[in-house]
Amino acid sequence: MTAAAAFILMALPSGAQNLLRHNYKYNGYTRVRTERIWVASGKTDVHPFWMSLEYILFPDGKSDAWIVELDFEEASSVNIPKGVNLGATLNDSKVVNSKQMESPAGDKRAFVNSSGKRVYWNVGKYLYETSDFNRLLSGVKSIDVATGWNPDSYIQKSFPNDEFASNLRKLAETVKKAGKPSGELVDNVARYADNNSSKTVVSKTLKVEGASLVTGVNMNYIYYKSSNKEDYDLSIRLNDSAKRLLGFDIPVTFTFADGSILEMKQQRDTYNEVVLYPTADQVKQLSSGVRKMSIVTEAGTFTETFAGDSFSSVIEALYNSLQTVAVL
């Protein structure tokens, strides 16, 4: 593998603020991964795909690698076998090759995508050293994706407007801006359940000491097999002797260090427990800079303040722990 210091980016576009999926160090490995973005070369593209990127820094702090994932939404299920080739033809007509790095599971289920079509998720993951990855960033004219060992098992795609490399540069910029993880991630997963229609991961409960009480925080990750979508549940328990009724749909407001505010709605009638259904972007937002939480109760507004990132660091730890076992 090449040294991390050799990572050289071409001129990169801006506007990738919400594309970071996770950034953590676990068992000595730093893993920075982006969200997926949709790549299509025109409206008539018959093989569009989702692209994501992961950067891995090995425990020696020098060796690194990049994983480019292509997720094809196709009418037929295909398990792209380990070892088949992806060839990317560059603008200078030279070819960069990589091989499918995993053997996909054979028990895939169809789901209904955003266009209302019943499709399968056909996944290819390709490992690159930094030198070859940077060659991809310079521009890709076309790709040839082997989907099996037969001569006619392949997908060929052209990118007349640099659709492949321009999106890859956007993802690479997201990785570059991520910075170093705050510390070594510990295992905060409590339970994992694989049900008929969903998969659920439940985190452990971590404590946050605020100005007036100790709060217990945990998070659930839910993957829905019928839609290939994800959700998060966030529970914040106010651990003191007061009995506060938190009614359904009351506002729960988080104030950040820069003065900005995020408001969400209580999702259940409970005593002393905030129950929220944040989006992934809202979870990421809560992972940095929360200084105050305000809750409307029947007895008036309860406000808790937090020193530094004591609350946000717990949200970050729970979210990244869930990502280590997330489906997508």
Topology:
Blueprint: E1 2-3, E2 20-26, E3 29-34, E4 37-39, E5 49-57, E6 63-74, E7 85-90, E8 95-99, E9 111-112, E10 118-128, H1 130-137, E11 140-146, E12 154-158, H2 163-177, E13 189-194, E14 198-203, E15 206-209, E16 214-224, E17 229-239, E18 245-246, E19 251-256, E20 261-265, E21 270-271, E22 273-276, H3 280-286, E23 290-297, E24 300-305, H4 310-323
Antiparallel strand pairs: 1-6, 2-3, 3-5, 4-5, 5-6, 6-10, 7-8, 7-11, 9-10, 11-12, 13-14, 14-16, 15-16, 16-17, 17-22, 18-21, 19-20, 19-23, 23-24
Gyration radius, rounded = 22 Å
Shape estimate: elongated
Calculate the terminal CA-CA distance, rounded to whole Å: 26 Å
Query: Which series of helices and strands comes N to C?
Result: EEEEEEEEEEHEEHEEEEEEEEEEHEEH
Give unreliable regions as ranges.
1-17
β-sheet strand percentage: 35-45%
SSE class: mainly beta
> Tally of extended strands?
24
Average pLDDT across residues? Answer: 92
Main β sheet profile: 8 strands, antiparallel
Number of helices: 4
Quick structural overview:
The protein has 328 residues and is mainly beta.
Explain what you see.
- It is a single chain.
- The protein has 328 residues and is mainly β.
- Helix content is 13%, strand content 45%.
- The protein has four helices and 24 strands.
- It has helices at 130-137, 163-177, 280-286, 310-323, and strands at 2-3, 20-26, 29-34, 37-39, 49-57, 63-74, 85-90, 95-99, 111-112, 118-128, 140-146, 154-158, 189-194, 198-203, 206-209, 214-224, 229-239, 245-246, 251-256, 261-265, 270-271, 273-276, 290-297, 300-305.
- The strands form five sheets. Strands 1, 2, 3, 4, 5, 6, 9 and 10 form an eight-stranded antiparallel sheet that branches.
- The longest helix is centred in the middle third of the chain and has 15 residues, at 163-177.
- The chain is elongated.
- It starts with a strand and ends in a 5-residue tail after the last helix.
- Mean pLDDT is 92; it is low at 1-17.
